[in-house]
Amino acid sequence: MFAFMENTHCPICHFSKTAPIFENTLLKCQSCGHAWANLQLDHTYLQELYAENYFKGEEYADYLADKEILQMNFKRRLQQIAKNAPEPKEILEIGCAYGFFYETIHQQFKSVNYQGYDISKDAIHYANEHFGPYFSAENYLEQNNSKTYDAVFMWDVIEHLADPGAFLAKASKEAKPGAMLYLTTGDFGALLPRLQGKKWRMIHPPTHLHYFTKKSMTALLTAHGFEPVFFKYPPVYRSLGLIYFALFILNKKTNKFHQWLYSKIPKAAAIPINTRDIFFVGAIKMKA
To answer: CA nearest 27: which of 40, 10, 4?
Structure first.
């Protein structure tokens, strides 16, 4: 279940002055600019929220069908990482979904040891069945882990977490000094969301709970022992089918013409898009 939270202090910088925005859909911090859905979600509710339908018609048109396109983005990020950091050996991925990033990174770095976590049991079942026993649907926050990692990845996941700080605190304890954390998420302080307001495509609680700015992301990272190394805005390859689905089918009344036209779009058709409102962040684990 979920409930409205009574504490309205900013969950990132803890500033006390916050204000409701977008018809009380979100609260916004008057200091760091962070916005969040003022909800408290339990693990059971989240498991139901991210069941199979989430990846097949609710938020994604068909996540499995977009495998090649998703991996195209992963490869580009890994190319950027390889230019500036040593080859990772021990890897943690939080929010691994169907395991596509594992397959991508294993192709580039053959000797990696990998552990992935995701709340979706359906996705984890697929990943273990296709790629090996490297994936868990257990609650990452409840795992007593003796492993340490030299790279942590969180692709398009931190905005979904009820308590991002708890995940970063645990990841920080398990990260070696000098380990790198890499993540992607929407930039709520970018031009497009400032122009579009509540119509910005990323605003859809309860799946997206947190909306970061550079300032709030920096505050969150440094509070948990990570120093930002870069904020980049690379283009992202998007499925033409997913774009059409989001524009004309998702949360819309059933329209046979749009359904028919969507079915005719080739699954592998993709284009690079850069609206400069998705940032790719790299941060290094600071020495104690």
So the answer is: 10
Amino acid (1-letter code) at residue 254 = T
60 φ, ψ (degrees, to nearest 5): -105, 140
- In degrees rounded to 5, what are phi and psi of residue 41? -115, 135
Tell the CATH topology of 13-42+63-285.
Rossmann fold (3.40.50)
Three-state DSSP class for 200?
coil
Q: Where are the domains of the chain?
A: 13-42+63-285
What are the strands, taking DSSP E only, across the chain?
2-4, 18-21, 26-29, 35-36, 39-41, 90-94, 113-117, 135-136, 149-155, 175-186, 210-211, 226-232, 236-239, 270-273, 278-285
How many helices (H) and strands (E) are present in the chain, helices listed first? 10, 15
Provide the sign of the torsion angle of the four alpha carbons 261, 267, 270, 276, taken in this order.
positive
Three-state SS at 164: helix
pLDDT averaged per 10 residues in sequence order, the chain, 288 residues: 65 94 93 91 75 67 84 95 89 97 91 94 96 95 91 97 96 96 98 96 92 98 97 91 78 81 79 94 91
Pair type for strands 270-273 and 236-239 = antiparallel
Residues comprising the chain, all counted = 288
Burial 264-285 (b: 16+ CB within 10 A, else e): ebebeebeeeebebbbbbbbbb
